[in-house]
Each structure stands twice: as structure tokens, then as C-alpha cells.
Design goal:
4 strands; 2 domains; mainly alpha; NinB protein; Recombinase_NinB; NinB_sf; 145 residues
Length: 145
């Protein structure tokens, strides 16, 4: 039996999922979960990080898109935690293994739910609007993600 995925959006999909469970061999595993983010969402916010890097400075310096990603994901995670809807894998700073420094353990966008990814995109738009970020075509792409 090959892997089967059902998006539970109507009665027929639910019936198909139930049938697959009924017909699955002993030992198979069933997981019901919230939808994960889409590739379109991921592409959109990565384009947005590039736009922020092009338009903004932090602590008086230009930063690359990866640095902005870390800063913005951290800021978004703090907002979501304050709202009582924390992001999985809260970031933290811990001592290095040899004790000579510190290691930043960040929240990973690849683990965002579809809902959190959508909210993150909206957060980025609001954050950018407050700072006059000029969004490129790529950042405006896929408006319905």
C-alpha cells in the first residue's frame, strides 16, 4: 500500500480517509495534523526578506536577508507567544559545548504551520509598511498564500 494523504475539506475526503484506515494493514501509522506551510508561502517570505535587506538597516548597518530572517522570525515569535499562540521550537541562546561562547538556537520557518506562515506574511507586510519597504514583484507574488 502506497502513502496516501487526505486533506479533510469535505465529506468525500473524510470518507476516503476512513476507507484507507479500514483497509490499511496492521502496523500502519495514521497521523492527523494541521496543514503545513506551502512552498509558495516559503518563496514569498524569502523574497520579502531580500526586500527588507535591500531597504532597511539594523543598528546602523545593512544586513543580509538571512540575518533579517532571523530577526523577523524572532520578533514574530515573540508576538505570537504574547498572543498565547506560541510557535513550535521557541528560540533560545545556550552555552557552547566547550563553554567558550554561546549558540543561538532559532525557530525554523520550515516547521511553521500553514496558519503561522500566513500570519507571518501578514506580519512582514505590516512591519515593512511601518518602515517604507518597497516590495518587489516576487514579494507580491502569490497573494493568496
Amino acid at each position: 500500500m502506497s502513502k496516501q494523504i487526505y486533506r479533510l475539506v469535505h465529506r468525500q475526503a473524510r470518507a476516503g480517509a476512513q476507507l484507507a484506515i479500514t483497509n490499511a494493514p496492521d502496523g500502519y501509522i495514521v497521523t492527523v495534523s494541521e496543514p503545513t506551510k506551502s512552498r509558495d508561502q516559503e518563496a514569498k517570505y524569502h523574497a520579502m526578506f531580500a526586500d527588507v535587506a535591500r531597504c532597511c538597516t539594523f543598528m546602523g548597518e545593512k544586513r543580509d536577508a538571512e540575518t533579517w530572517k532571523r530577526l523577523l522570525v524572532d520578533a514574530f515569535a515573540r508576538v505570537k507567544a504574547a498572543e498565547g499562540d506560541p510557535i513550535k521550537g521557541q528560540g533560545q541562546i545556550i552555552p557552547s559545548l566547550d563553554g567558550s561562547g554561546f549558540v543561538q538556537l532559532g525557530i525554523q520557518t520550515r516547521r511553521f504551520s500553514k496558519k503561522h506562515a500566513s500570519e507571518f506574511i501578514e506580519y512582514l507586510y505590516a512591519w515593512g509598511a511601518d518602515r517604507d519597504v518597497n516590495w518587489t514583484g516576487e514579494a507580491r507574488y502569490a497573494e493568496n498564500v
